[in-house]
Amino acid sequence: MIEGRGITKTFASRGGVLGSQSVTALRGVDFLIPRGGAVSFIGESGCGKTTLGRILAGLETYDGGQLIVGDTDLSTLKPKAREPHFRRVQLIHQDPYSALNPTRTIESTLRDPLRLRAAQTGKPASWVASQTEELLSLVGLDPSYVLPRYPHQLSGGMRQRVVVARALTVEPEVLVADEAVSMIDVSLRLGILGLLRQLRETLGVSILFITHDVATARYVGADGELYVIYRGQVVERGPVETVLADPVHPYTQCLLSAIPVLHGLERPGEDRLVPKEPLDEKMEPAGCLFAPRCPFATEVCVSERPVLGRLGGTPQHHACFFPASRHVVATPLR
Ligand SMILES: Nc1ncnc2c1ncn2[C@@H]1O[C@H](COP(=O)(O)OP(=O)(O)OP(=O)(O)O)[C@@H](O)[C@H]1O
Ligand code: SF4
Ligand SMILES: [Mg+2]
Questions:
Q1: Whether 67 and 152 share a structural domain
Q2: Separation of CA 94 and ligand 3 centre (Å)
Q3: Which residues form the ABC transporter domain (predicted)?
Q4: Is 320 close to ligand 2, i.e. is its CB under 6 Å away?
Q5: Residue range(s) defining the domain that contains residue 290
Q6: Contact residues for 206 (Cβ-Cβ < 8 A; gap 6+)
């Protein structure tokens, strides 16, 4: 189990359009990834999804809050002592092309981390070879075909499977899949998503699925929770199907309304919404972060910021003064 409590992160600006302003990437994010469970984060570009995934994998620091892995609050440990905990979380990169060293065969890519583990755990050399083959089979690849090859000799889907196999060499408890299929040919995506689902079942590994594509979050994290992030704040969260069928936060409603409708096959959700304004990242509203764009904003929204709270006695949470269930996702025509 991994829990985040009030995780915050601010970056000094890279310059560019934001000038010298700093960027608040995460604003007190709470989350819980249960063992063997799936959690999906969705939100538009720049909302802080990757930052959160990188923090979990120990690739980025956080400024405030607590990250609790198992029973250990990592904030209380020295950086060196955090490393073994971060190894339990492995990141699957968006781009399988750059994630693998092009000058090394797949065999050499997988062998080195396995050798290290064999040395640490006193396993014989023969274990490395058998484990290499086992991991490749687990991710649906034929070891005899793949092992002698270089990354460029494989398809995008095969490469992403190798990336998953490499992540599994350290027996992680959590796989963070950050837009893991967005750069893969559409025809191969379902295979990778199915693999992530299968790993949850066979290895009990938890999946943190980061995406701006609702359909893939729905597929991989069907029985888990969906977190909707807006400008670094979780504005709605709850069981995936509940949030999709009955979103109560206007931002979620706008986000889901933007999913293209398959005209002739689907009926658009009757309450579809569009934001009033485009996003202006330079503006830092005093009240609700979504107020400048929200069709339902009132005076209180402009002066006060709503915090994430529970919707009645339901498992759904929202950060809106006026939550209202609206149906925005398209439904199939009968
Ligand atoms: N190293 C960095 N230095 C400065 N700003 C950064 C850095 N990394 C991220 N940011 C900023 O933090 C915010 C969140 O970025 P992040 O990459 O987490 O968003 P994201 O939700 O993953 O977006 P996308 O969907 O485009 O991948 C953005 O405004 C981004 O510009
Ligand atoms: S708090 Fe107000 S501005 Fe913010 S999302 Fe809810 S209705 Fe819109
Ligand atoms: Mg990202």
A1: yes
A2: 9
A3: 2-256
A4: yes
A5: 248-332
A6: 2, 33, 34, 35, 36, 37, 38, 39, 173, 174, 175, 200
